[in-house]
Structures are given as structure tokens and as C-alpha cells.
Write a structure and sequence with these properties.
The protein is globular and about 55 Å long. Helix 4 crosses helix 5. It is mainly α. The chain is built from ten helices and no strands. The mean pLDDT is 89.
């Protein structure tokens, strides 16, 4: 038991120190996720202000500051805590003979680095797409995912407005995705990381981008806006589940873009019951099981 507690504390303090050093510019720029997130957010917000899709939407839209707080809470504060728990699980698995190499299906270590990054990105994006589908399909998961869908005006910061329990669902499946690749995570994975943040921010931004012919590969703000639509096609529990790639939605017939005016109501039936404060939102799902 003592070794498990020690592993948790070491991982927790290590993550905390890494984040603090990032804020103080003591971490190399290419893996400085704190300032990377901040710079990407400011750049995309500037584009939103300069070229707004919904021109009547305020620069400081509804829940702007709440979403901005969520961005740092989910990306750093909660991650610091959850990293400790997963280090404990890793130790427990190792004690029963399960390692990162146990589920290896694809060994990408011999590929050139660009090939490793592409496969790494595609596998993790599919895992996230699949997890996202589950969040909509099953009520137990949906009641937490509702927080993300309670956004009523879309902007870049809505990307990381989500219930902290989503990290608990996503992290194990993403870990399995890495294990499938032989437990291999390229040192240059920061490229994938920053690319995913940028695409995610753009998908939620008040900007009209479709990427032309690449729309069948890359997700975009027009497509993702309909994921947040209040009104969904009949007998569908969701549409456009793509994270960075739209490819999966076209392959699995979950794509839906009836028009591109951007003038649709966002949310879901019953979203008026979602609490307005951050504190009440982060306990929502445990106390509101029937909603």
C-alpha cells in the first residue's frame, strides 16, 4: 500500500511541478503545453473577433469566462490529479504481469518519424471518436457529457468545457490505444498534441471554415456546430462525433450538415436544468441521475 501511495504522490507532485515550471518558462517551448494552449487560444480568439461567422454574437459571448476557466481546469488542474491515479494503475498492472507492451498489435517503432506520428494521431483520434459516440449513446455517460452540450453560444473556449468525469472515460481508452501501438509514444508527439488543440479550438470557434475537399478528412466548425444542435434528426442520439477527423463520421454514416448559415439553436431538450455555476456543474451527473 505504501508503494502505491508513494507512486501517486510522486506523479502528482511531478505533474504539479511540471505545470508550474511551464508557467515560469522553465520548460522547452515545444512541450510547454500551458503557454501553447494560451497562445493558440489567443490566436483563434483574434480570428474569431476579426472574421466572425455569427456577426451578432458578442466577443465576450455567453459563458465566455466560465469556459475559459474550464479550459485551464480540465487541461491542467484535473490532469495533475488524474495522472497520479493512472500511475497507481500502471503499477498495479505491472504487479500482475500486464505492461504497455501486453496489447501490442501494431509495432510502429521502425517507421520513419512522420509515419509514426500519423499512425499515432489516427489511432488516438479514432479512440476518441469512439469514446465520444459512447458518451452520447449511454445515459450514464451522457449525463456527464451534457455539461459540454449546455453551451448556448459557440466559441473557441467551449472546446474544453466538459465535466471532469470525461477525463476518467477518455484516458483509459487512449491508454489502450497507445498500448496497441506497442506502448510507443513518439518524442515528437507534441506535434500531434498542439495540432489536436488547434483543430478542437477551431471546431468550436465562431469562424466559418469547411476546408474545401479536405472536409471529408478534417473536422470543421460548420460540421461541429451541428453536433451541438438543439434539434437532431429523428431517431439519432447524435451526429458529427469527430474530434480532429471528420473521416470517421463519413465512414460510419454519422455525418449531418443540412446547411451552413450557422443560425441554429444550440443545446438539448432539458438543458435549462443544467446548473449555471462551475461548482454545481462539476458535481452534476452524480446528483442529477434522472435528468
Amino acid at each position: 500500500m505504501n508503494d502505491l501511495i508513494s507512486v501517486f504522490i510522486d506523479a502528482f507532485m511531478g505533474s504539479l511541478l511540471w505545470t508550474w515550471n511551464s508557467i515560469l518558462f522553465k520548460v522547452p517551448w515545444y512541450i510547454n503545453y500551458f503557454w501553447g494552449l494560451t497562445i493558440i487560444s489567443l490566436l483563434i480568439w483574434t480570428i474569431e473577433i476579426s472574421f466572425p461567422w455569427r456577426k451578432t454574437q458578442s466577443i465576450f459571448r455567453k459563458d465566455f469566462w466560465l469556459d475559459a476557466f474550464y479550459m485551464y481546469f480540465n487541461f491542467f488542474v484535473f490532469t495533475i490529479v488524474i495522472n497520479g491515479f493512472y500511475k497507481v494503475f500502471e503499477l498495479l498492472f505491472s504487479k500482475i504481469g500486464i505492461s504497455l507492451q501486453s496489447l501490442t498489435i501494431i509495432d510502429i517503432s521502425d517507421l520513419p518519424i512522420w509515419g509514426q506520428l500519423i499512425i499515432f494521431f489516427i489511432v488516438l483520434d479514432f479512440v476518441q471518436w469512439f469514446t465520444h459516440v459512447l458518451l452520447h449513446k449511454y445515459h450514464f455517460l451522457w449525463r456527464f457529457h451534457k455539461i459540454h452540450h449546455s453551451v448556448k453560444e459557440m466559441g473557441f473556449a467551449a472546446h474544453l468545457r466538459y465535466h471532469w468525469m470525461e477525463n476518467v472515460f477518455y484516458k483509459p481508452l487512449k491508454t489502450i490505444g497507445v498500448m496497441i501501438l506497442g506502448g510507443f509514444e513518439p518524442e515528437q508527439a507534441y506535434i500531434v498534441h498542439f495540432f489536436a488543440i488547434t483543430i478542437g479550438h477551431l471546431n468550436h470557434a465562431n469562424i466559418k471554415i469547411t476546408w474545401g475537399p479536405l472536409k471529408y478528412i478534417l473536422n470543421n466548425p460548420v460540421m461541429h456546430l451541428y453536433h451541438h444542435s438543439y434539434t437532431l434528426p429523428k431517431e439519432r442520439y447524435g451526429v458529427n462525433f469527430g474530434i480532429s477527423l471528420s473521416l470517421w463520421d463519413y465512414l460510419f454514416k454519422t455525418s449531418y450538415i443540412p446547411e451552413s448559415s450557422g443560425k441554429i439553436e444550440l443545446g438539448f431538450p432539458g438543458d435549462e436544468h443544467i446548473p449555471k455555476s462551475f461548482i454545481r456543474q462539476i458535481i452534476y451527473g452524480f446528483t442529477n441521475r434522472n435528468n
